[in-house]
Write a structure and sequence with these properties.
Blueprint (H helix, E strand, L loop, with lengths): L19 H12 L4 E4 L6 H10 L4 E7 L6 H15 L3 H10 L6 E4 L6 E4 L9 H13 L4 E7 L10 H12 L7 E5 L2 H8 L11 E2 L7 H13 L7 H10 L4 H14 L8 H24 L3 H13 L7 H7 L4 H13 L3 E3 L4 E3 L2 H11 L1
Parallel strand pairs: 1-6, 1-7, 2-5, 5-6
Antiparallel strand pairs: 3-4, 8-9
Length: about 375
């Protein structure tokens, strides 16, 4: 029987746990043409929420642009052009689009797998910041004839462009002139999204409604997960659900990953128990242990001590005597230096007065392997 859990990808349909309140708010914003900024940690389900919600809105087209790891303006322009091809692969539509953006020397090719036409732009012709404005003008022109919701995922990565601030200013200037088209901005690095949307000096300051995405309601998620296990006649006791939620930090993507592993190590008609959870974690460690090892390979002894302390003691009170005694670190200043390095490495982050592991399974691995 097929494993009913998916992770590491956008989920939809039966694999998607509905978030009725968030979907209702997002739908209302889109229908009214309101721009929205959606923040939440990685694997919290932001992209799935948007694609599932807007994708089900009758009469609307979703133009989804993934900006993860863009490094140049040409990258940004190529991503937008690719998104237009995915929104509507009709050749006539793409030929019309190419005329709108002729300055960028567009070309139409054919996808090797689907056989459908794909729009692209010339890298040399699309390297200046104002080229982005050409593409936004094109979107606005298409929005005269159809309802389009534009989604920029991992929007904070625009800050990595050499001309990032200029690009943001140009985008904001053009977007505010198109009230018909709602723009949805997704971001997973909280402080950088805050810099874009809530810092008074930013062009996007207070330019979009805030819709934070956090953990799914516990009762709703528990019912969804239990039903997924039941498709293979596996029973999940209430107590085990609390263990699953605790180990995965309640983050939807990690919950799904842990449950996928639980399914893999258990038998049909079984009542799942803590021993299965331990086996599932070992399976995850076997899959990801090499990567976890790479994470710690270049850390100093001090950083490893602080990392181990966070795994065992949690991320609150890290400058107090108890934490210092537990880790064997001499003073709070040393802890602070180590935390700064661990944050820059992307292993931990600070939120709501607490240091947290980005990957909760890495936290379990640290406790198990380095404790």
């Amino acid at each position: 029987m097929t494993n009913p859990f998916k992770y590491g990808c956008v989920v939809d349909g039966e694999y998607y746990c509905a978030r009725a309140d968030l979907a209702r708010q997002l739908k209302s914003f889109v229908e009214s043409g309101q721009n929205v900024v959606i923040q939440g940690e990685r694997r919290m389900g932001k992209t799935s929420l948007v694609r599932e919600t807007v994708g089900r809105m009758r009469g609307w087209k979703l133009l989804y642009v993934d900006l993860l790891y863009i490094r140049t303006v040409a990258d940004l322009c190529r991503r937008i052009a690719q998104a237009v091809s995915e929104m509507d692969s009709n050749r006539g539509f793409l030929e019309k689009t190419a005329k709108f953006i002729s300055r960028l020397r567009p070309t139409l090719s054919f996808d090797g797998q689907t056989g459908g036409p794909v729009l692209s732009v010339d890298a040399a012709a699309s390297r200046e910041p104002d080229c982005v404005e050409v593409l936004l003008n094109m979107i606005a022109e298409h929005a005269r004839a159809r309802k389009i919701c534009v989604v920029f995922d991992e929007f904070q990565d625009i800050l990595d462009l050499e001309d990032g601030n200029q690009v943001l200013a140009l985008m904001r200037s053009r977007i505010q002139l198109d009230p018909r088209t709602p723009y949805v901005f997704l971001g997973s690095i909280r402080n950088r999204m805050t810099d874009i949307f809530w810092h008074p000096d930013s062009p996007f300051y207070h330019s979009a409604a805030a819709l934070p995405v956090g953990r799914i309601d516990d009762a709703v998620f528990k019912s969804f997960i239990a039903a997924r296990f039941a498709t293979g006649k596996r029973r999940m006791p209430d107590g085990l659900w609390h263990e699953i939620s605790s180990v995965s930090d309640g983050i939807p993507g990690y919950v799904q990953e842990l449950c996928e592993a639980l399914w893999s190590v258990s038998e049909p008609s079984a009542t799942l128990e803590s021993g299965d959870l331990s086996a599932a974690l070992e399976l995850i460690f076997s899959r990801e242990g090499d990567h976890f090892g790479m994470f710690v390979r270049d850390l100093t002894t001090l950083q490893l001590k602080v990392l181990g302390g966070l795994a065992k003691k949690g991320g609150k009170g890290v400058f107090a005597g108890e934490f210092l005694s537990e880790t064997g670190v001499l003073n709070a200043a040393s802890v602070r230096r180590a935390l700064t390095r661990l944050e820059k490495s992307g292993l931990i982050y600070y939120f709501e007065n607490e240091y947290r592991f980005v990957n909760p399974f890495f936290k379990e691995w640290v406790k198990d392997r380095l404790g």
